Amino acid sequence: MKAFYGDLKLGILGGGQLGRMLIQQAINYNVTVKVLDPDREAPCRKLCDEFTVGSLSDYETVYNFGKKADMVTIEIEKVNVDALEQLEKEGVLVYPQSRIIRLIQDKGLQKQFFKENHIPTAEFHVISSPEQLKQSHIPFPYIQKLRREGYDGRGVYKVFDETYLPNAFTEPSLIERWIDFEKEVGVIVARNENGEVKTFPMVEMEFNPQANLVEFLISPSTLPFEVHQEAAQIATKIAQDLKIVGLLAVEMFLDKSGKILVNELAPRPHNSGHQTIEGNMVSQFEQHLRAIFNQPLGDTSCLNNAIMVNVLGEAGFEGPAIYQGIEKVLKVAGVYIHLYGKALTKPFRKMGHVTIVDADREKAIEKARFVQETLKVVS
After folding, report:
1. Model pTM score
2. Which of 12, 66, 318, 358 has the smallest C-beta neighbourhood within 10 Å, fewest atoms?
3. What is the CATH number of the domain that holds 81?
4. Domain ends where: 135, 159, 177?
5. Residue 337's CB: how many other CB atoms inside 10 A?
6. Residue 49: in which H helix or E strand, if any?
């Protein structure tokens, strides 16, 4: 590993907000950062040392980009894994490893991994054609998920009964038993090359029912200690079974009976960890860098109650972004605004997030609800 004197070249595949916040932390480690993204107006474009416009799914583009770096990481899973495998063979460090990205890209393989490694998850059935939907032993209602390229609620369809089958996905997919859950929770875990593993405290999440993405997050969760402990143990086991190097977000359901079931994985910084920037001793972004640089992992303890509110584009608006209510929100103590540098808004697009910290949990939640009602992105 090169020393942190500006000669360590880190390549990031993806130039969105996750890459932007990763760069903000990488600057503190004096790392040279190169970014590849298909959008010439991507949020990372002005922060990195070198910005390349190009396809993340094209073999030659990803390969040539990676050859100029000492290490490659991702902020989105939809990348060309074949190119990353070749880079690994030629000595470029790729974290998370290409085999893990390949697994995560396919929800069917991901579910099989859970089954083979005794990770608790909802009952599922992998299918390759619409006809198999009718033959499944899983009763209505159930969830159908595309095996590939589903993201932020896209590629997910709830089948209530047979009348919904004509509109079901025709591509290879999987169906899952519908979980009557009590809470959606998440744990972010990190592992470095030395095998050191640390988890962040479990968080509770609220999802936007229309966009099916995280809209409101509470850290730390006040669920019983036993639930925290079990969630952390599950996340640790997954990281160890995968032998991942880097960060892994583990999304879970807590069902009505108190059982934890793993929903999905993301091998990168995640929306469920943004509050760690102000709310924890180490942020998820610094922890990811520590992990891939094989440095000691940081203290993940909470500094305070922290609530994260996603700032989404308002329904009915599309065009140049206008942020309404910022002045009112900034008058509130303990409010931290993060705007992602996206010039154009559209319905439910992630335009930023706000973290609210307070020693009083209920006051923090009250302030966060005010932010949620006040800060709007229109055009």
Report:
1. 0.95
2. 318
3. 3.40.50.20
4. 177
5. 16
6. none
